[in-house]
Design brief:
three-stranded antiparallel β-sheet; 253 residues; seven-stranded antiparallel β-sheet; 6 helices; 21% helix; alpha+beta; Jelly Rolls
């Protein structure tokens, strides 16, 4: 694994894979998602669903208005993650015993607004530690800027530590909150300034980022849905679940 990518994750909290995933893999993921979504959509219009993981279902969550998350395991996708091109980077940072946390597909509808900045899990020590969790974002099709790819605040994983900066509130960092943005963090630490990054993606492009990094899906200003598969990993022994908190199923009467 390239030391450059490991270093990028350490310094920026974000690494861009040099090699794209095979198109055949994106097609496998897409076909599995389509089959799952058809089943979900057949009953979704008869159910109420709010915003956030606690207001959703085991099968689907609305992360923000018009932005949906459908969990699908690697086994359901029919893939071996440890043979994926991103696994050497995951294991280099989290160790060979790194564990799968979540995976699935997130998609945003046309005209869905940009998300608020947020992290996916909090720091676990007041002293900055190496990443305890990483996320892989994989474009299932070409995604121009108008479709709203993910935007990242590079280096913000150094600033989102609520255990070090007690003026921060973890619930405002994890659950999307209008007051959370890179600038408010920089004001409390003048030693580091976050730079935001967002770029168009080609089908098969991979972005890997630290769970503590501020990020957000940009507004989808196109006329079609934007689809991204994701695979999340944690160090062995680390436990945190702010992704899918609902205990109810769409398919229970």
């Amino acid at each position: 694994m390239s030391n450059k990518l490991v270093q990028k994750l350490e310094t920026d909290g974000l690494a861009l894979m040099d090699t794209a995933c095979p198109i055949e893999l994106t097609e496998v993921l897409w076909n599995t998602f389509q089959h799952r979504y058809e089943k979900i959509n057949s009953v979704l219009d008869r159910k109420k669903i709010g915003i956030g993981s606690h207001a959703g279902y085991e099968e689907i969550v609305q992360r923000s208005p018009g932005r949906w998350d459908i969990p699908i395991t690697p086994e359901e996708f029919g893939i071996d993650e440890k043979k994926a091109i991103w696994w050497p980077l995951i294991s280099s940072v989290l160790g060979e015993t790194a564990e799968h946390s979540f995976s699935g597909v997130v998609f945003s509808e046309p005209q869905s607004p940009a998300q608020h900045w947020h992290i996916d899990s909090p720091h676990i020590s007041a002293t900055h530690k190496p990443a305890h969790a990483l996320n892989v974002m994989l474009a299932l099709h070409d995604i121009p800027i108008t479709m709203g790819p993910t935007e990242y605040a590079c280096g913000s994983h150094f600033l989102t530590n609520h255990l070090h900066n007690q003026s921060l509130r973890p619930e405002k960092l994890i659950y999307q909150h209008a007051e959370t943005d890179p600038e408010c963090l920089v004001d409390k630490n003048t030693l580091y300034t976050s730079k935001t990054y967002a770029a168009e993606l080609l089908q098969g492009s991979c972005q890997i980022f630290d769970d503590r990094l501020l990020h957000r899906g940009l507004a989808n200003m196109s006329k079609t849905n934007r689809y991204i598969a994701y695979f999340s990993y944690r160090r062995k022994g680390y436990i945190s679940n702010t992704h899918f908190e609902s205990q109810k199923s769409l398919f229970n009467n």
